[in-house]
Amino acid sequence: MRLVDPSTEDFIGDVPLASLAETDEAIRRAHEAFGSWRAVAPGDRARLLRRFAVLVDEHVEELAQLEVRNAGHTISNARWEARNVRDVLDYYSGAPERLVGRQIPVPGGLDFTFAEPLGVVGLIVPWNFPMPIAGWGLAPALAAGNTVVLKPAEATPLTALRLAELGLEAGLPEGVFTVLPGAGSIAGQRFVTHPLVRKICFTGSTAVGKRIMAGCADQVKRLTLELGGKNPNIIFADADLERAAATAPYAVFDNAGQDCCARSRLLVQASVYDKFLALLEPAVRGVRVGQPGLDETEMGPLISAAHRDKVASYVDDPLFQGTVPEGPGFWYPPTVLESAGRDRAWHEEVFGPVVSVRPFTDEAEAVELANDTEYGLSASVWTRDASRAVRVARAVQAGTLSVNSHSSVRYWTPFGGVKQSGLGRELGPDALAGFTEVRNVFMSVEEA
Ligand code: NAP
Ligand code: MG
């Protein structure tokens, strides 16, 4: 695969894609490694993950620079992303020694459970957040005693390949964590059909996720899906409007809008609609779009020319737009659309720096509009009324909600979607349940 720097359109390297036979071979080696990896003493597995985290920490800058070049991420985001891999490895390094089972009272004997690893886990990662999404899968999967084969997106394999090298350097045995650049239709699809892959952890589009889910049915294969979003940012009249308007652009234009959690539907209470738009406009025009390697840049380019064309196809008669640099690069400006709810941009995930604004009259209508989507990943609610904040947060159908903030991803807490945004939860204390199977043993204590 020919890789291109999205901010310059310069060729940056060629990464060969795995064939079907190479994919099978990687799965075979991961399966072979599973027996000894699950048998590594919990304290030793924990130590290896901690050492892996230390090595990632020592290479934050290198990994970040790679992502700037390969994906056009801003350097400040890319540093956060590399540190997120470190943090998630650290967090789950606590797990091997705490994967406790239960002892359950039963008549006639002793009953106890084990949280057993599944086997080979296939991670399929999209191009928008190559590092964090790799980390959210690989860290808990390895901690629980599984081995991992990871297929990065074709366009963005470089950081995953480097992470695999760091894993080996940390002392992970061969075959425990393998990165396999390849096409979705070949390597990714093979993870689904290969009987030795016992679980798929997929992040990507809802369309591909549905096909993977159907494919997994064949072998009753375990599956986690993190899919698209069309997330509302709901601003009530009593909110801190200055703060809400100052932060709204970053909630959707971060990573150039290529974020499943992007708050791309901005719902504003009608009584403050004009006032809010007046505050929003300078905030949007103020977003610093530019060379991603510069510290002060807040938004970089899109991933490719084709993706930019797709994003542009949603925009017709914008209310206002920011600016982009001249010259090469896949740039698209921060864009605000007014919506009456009948346009494609209101319903479809644009996955670019485009936000649709729409007024609502009262709480009931805000909730109704927020839920008028097949998706349900994240949502923000801005109000000073604490009771309303809780009511609306519970009424909006989303997996990850934030009040007076736009936080979605915090590695301590569960992340994932409802409705067609996905299945299962990553991160937080519960993620390990997705990488283990509860097994129950009953032992009779009757006298012979
Ligand atoms: P995509 O086309 O679904 O691709 C995601 C990954 O799946 C890529 O590695 C892709 O490989 C692979 N793939 C494609 N077809 C496949 C198949 N038939 N079998 C197995 N694997 C296959 O999505 P994308 O365009 O890269 O990413 C954007 C989407 O991801 C957006 O919709 C976004 O909302 C979603 N996303 C969701 C989350 C979340 O956590 N909920 C996070 C980030 C992104 P190739 O590179 O070869 O296409
Ligand atoms: Mg794709």
Question: What tags apply to this protein structure?
Answer:
448 residues, six-stranded mixed β-sheet, 14 helices, binds NADP nicotinamide-adenine-dinucleotide phosphate, Aldehyde Dehydrogenase, Chain A, domain 2, 18 strands, Aldehyde Dehydrogenase, Chain A, domain 1, seven-stranded mixed β-sheet, alpha/beta, binds magnesium ion, 2 domains, globular
Q: What does this protein look like?
A:
The protein is α/β, with parallel strands linked by helices. It has two domains: 2-227 and 417-442, Aldehyde Dehydrogenase, Chain A, domain 1; 232-403, Aldehyde Dehydrogenase, Chain A, domain 2. Helix content is 39%, strand content 19%. The protein has helices spanning 20-39, 42-58, 60-71, 75-93, 130-143, 158-170, 184-193, 206-217, 241-253, 273-285, 305-312, 344-347, 363-370, 386-395; strands at residues 2-4, 11-14, 103-104, 109-117, 120-124, 147-151, 177-179, 197-203, 222-226, 232-235, 265-269, 320-321, 335-338, 354-360, 378-382, 400-403, 422-423, 436-444. The strands form four sheets. It has a seven-stranded mixed sheet with strand order 12-13-14-11-10-15-16, sandwiched between helices. Strand 6, helix 6 and strand 7 (177-179) form a beta-alpha-beta unit. Helix 2 packs antiparallel against helix 4 (75-93), helix 3 (60-71) runs antiparallel to helix 6 and helix 9 crosses helix 10 (273-285). The site of NADP nicotinamide-adenine-dinucleotide phosphate has 31 residues, from helix 7 and helix 8.
